[in-house]
């Protein structure tokens, strides 16, 4: 008699895929069936890549960007502008800004955004580490580059208030990026305009 479910191990695979952000049941099924249809080498390469990434990649001890060593390549680059610090939500946002090729300062990754409904408050983010960095370094500007959705805007407002205690210029990404947009999906030219047109807050 039909149960409306696949075989146990296939269901397990679909369940694991569906746990990933942005992956619904249908997408999880497509991925699972792709794995089943592919050669054993494909599965070995995929599982090997996952295990290697988990074993070798961690967070930079300075900025929280992803790194294969204690400090990421950006923090270790002596040619970067040490007077400018760009605050972003996720490591993927660092790459989005780097692609614009108009910013040459340092970064601080919060590893998320404020979202009270999801139980994410200031303590769950790397905000205290940010304040310590600003206090202990001779920074001229802190650029708040959180997303322009509701969580990102709330985070930007919180950070701007928390940073007011320091003698540092605080700016926010401005022109070019539509309200509600995520940085990772912003094209290179638009990102460049947003960085160049940032405004004080």
What this model shows, in words?
- The chain has 201 residues and is α/β, with parallel strands linked by helices.
- It has 2 domains: 8-56, Helicase, Ruva Protein, domain 3 (Orthogonal Bundle), CATH 1.10.8.420; 77-200, Dna Topoisomerase Vi A Subunit, Chain: A, domain 2 (3-Layer(aba) Sandwich).
- The protein contains 7 helices and 7 strands; from the N terminus they run αααβββαβαβαβαβ.
- The strands form 2 sheets. The chain has a 5-stranded mixed beta sheet with strand order 4-3-5-6-7. The protein has a two-stranded antiparallel sheet with strand order 1-2.
- The longest helix is centred in the first third of the chain and has 17 residues, at 40-56.
- The termini are far apart.
Count of discrete alpha- or pi-helical segments spanning 4 or more residues: 7
Number of strands: 7
Strand content: 5-15%
**Rg, Å, rounded:** 20 Å
CATH topology heading of the largest domain: Dna Topoisomerase Vi A Subunit, Chain: A, domain 2
**Morphology call:** elongated
User: Helix content range of the residues, please?
Assistant: 40-55%
